[in-house]
Amino acid sequence: MSDKYDVIVIGAGPGGYVAAIKAAQLGLKTACIESWTDKQGKNRLGGTCLNVGCIPSKALLEISHKYEEASHDFAEQGIIAKEVSFDIAKMMKRKEGIVDQLTGGIGGLFKSNGVTPIYGHGKLLANRNVEVTDKDGKSKIYEADNVIIATGSKPIQIPPAPFDGQHIVDSEGALEFTEVPKRLGVIGAGVIGLELGSVWARLGSEVTMLEAVDTFLPAIDQQIAKDALKQFQKQGLNITLGARMTGAEVKRKLVNVTYEDSKGKQEAKFDKLIVCVGRRPYTDNLLSEDSGVQMDERGFIFVDDNCKTEAPGVWAIGDVVRGPMLAHKASEEGVMVAERIAGHKPQVNYDCIPNVIYTSPEVAWVGKTEEEVKADGEEYNVGTFPFAANGRAMAANSTSGMVKIIADAKTDRIVGFHVVGPQASEIVAQGVIAMEFGSSAEDLALTCFAHPTLSESVHEAALGVAGGAIHIANRRKKK
């Protein structure tokens, strides 16, 4: 078989494998390079997301949530579940089973679509040549008309708390604990920190989260953030804001942490410490000096709006380029690039990419926050509706949170859609679809929603934008 391809994709995560499949479906001869191996040295497709990220973390979030419900919420609903316990080894086995199924499934999809998997570390050379070095150190060079870089990202390590793989771990290590830590420290109260902290808090850990910034979830709508913070604190997550970490030392199997907050120097002891302060692009030994691809000082690859790099025929997608580090954003970029290579001209609508925090309650949003709209000087209207007034949420014993819709005052066009509450990750899709089609709040208000459903809260929030909600008192309009 010739070593020349129409498309070579470097990386088989949610951006890379999707780009490879789409390119092959469009009739392009495609190969996908992946270096990931498991602990047994077996080649794995799927990247961070499927192996040690989105999927295994959601498996543990679901399992721990069910345990939490059975332990604390069933009784008030008339279900008596005595002495509920859990088997952590079985939990981890289930998590691994799901990962195996999905990563193996990508191999099947490659086969059915005619994508050639190539295992090893890919390095882009000049003129779209790609050198692949396998795990035995043997190298081979492949040629391509187009190369798509989709190498993803990895956790940032901070000098005060270097990973040791046992006591001080990253997000990957936090998914592999063999027992529940009595006292768990989490550095960073962002998306990943909140999700991992939630898993272990539900299973019995005393969780302390240290966040350097003074504002909780500063990137999201602050009305939603404040509501979420209240719920997380009620669940026992001890979240300390404005806490700048200065050191971590392991002594007698305990992690001694020092940090500074508004009260001065502080100390804390933990059985385990998870460091979740963000991720950085995985571009180590990826580009030769004459590859023609440019990076910034943080390791992000420069691309235009259509993910083209400065080197002809070379593209980059996902976590290695600008924009949110989200699996679904990477997948959309992968499809766009494959279609552009095939001669079509689609674009990704970056204004309509949803974000989700898979805690309980879930937090999800798309579009602008109220703070952003206000800062832009735009006139706007807001409609909110609490799940506490939703019959289906009451029936499900899950009434915390709200739906919030922000609309432009002149056009009524929806510019922001925010949810904190049950199934927010599913409900936000209604906002994404509405915004993708340029809907007004009135469009949603005139839409018939099934009763009783959680989605009726979307309907009511849309009605509320014009002060016409039915099932809560509307804010009086200023005269």
Keywords:
single chain; 479 residues; alpha/beta; FAD/NAD(P)-binding domain; Enolase-like, domain 1; 3 domains; seven-stranded mixed beta sheet; five-stranded parallel beta sheet; 12 helices
Task: Describe this structure in a few short sentences.
Helix content is 29%, strand content 25%. It is of the alpha/beta class and 479 residues long.
What does this structure look like?
The chain is of the alpha/beta class. The chain has three domains: 4-155 and 280-348, 3-Layer(bba) Sandwich (FAD/NAD(P)-binding domain); 168-277, FAD/NAD(P)-binding domain (3-Layer(bba) Sandwich); 352-465, 2-Layer Sandwich (Enolase-like, domain 1). It contains twelve helices and 22 strands. The chain has helices at 16-25, 47-52, 54-73, 88-113, 191-202, 222-234, 327-341, 370-375, 391-395, 424-436, 441-445, 456-465, and strands at residues 4-10, 30-34, 116-119, 121-124, 129-133, 139-149, 153-155, 168-169, 183-187, 206-211, 238-241, 244-251, 254-261, 264-270, 272-275, 279-281, 314-316, 355-357, 362-367, 380-386, 402-408, 414-421. The strands form five sheets. Strands 1, 2, 3, 4, 5, 6 and 17 form a seven-stranded mixed sheet that branches. It has a five-stranded parallel sheet with strand order 8-15-9-10-11, with helices on one face. The protein has a five-stranded antiparallel sheet with strand order 18-19-22-21-20, sandwiched between helices. Strand 5 and strand 6 form a beta hairpin. The longest helix has 26 residues, at 88-113. The mean pLDDT is 97. GO terms for molecular function: dihydrolipoyl dehydrogenase (NADH) activity. Residues 353-462 form the Pyridine nucleotide-disulphide oxidoreductase dimerisation domain. Its main location: cytoplasm.
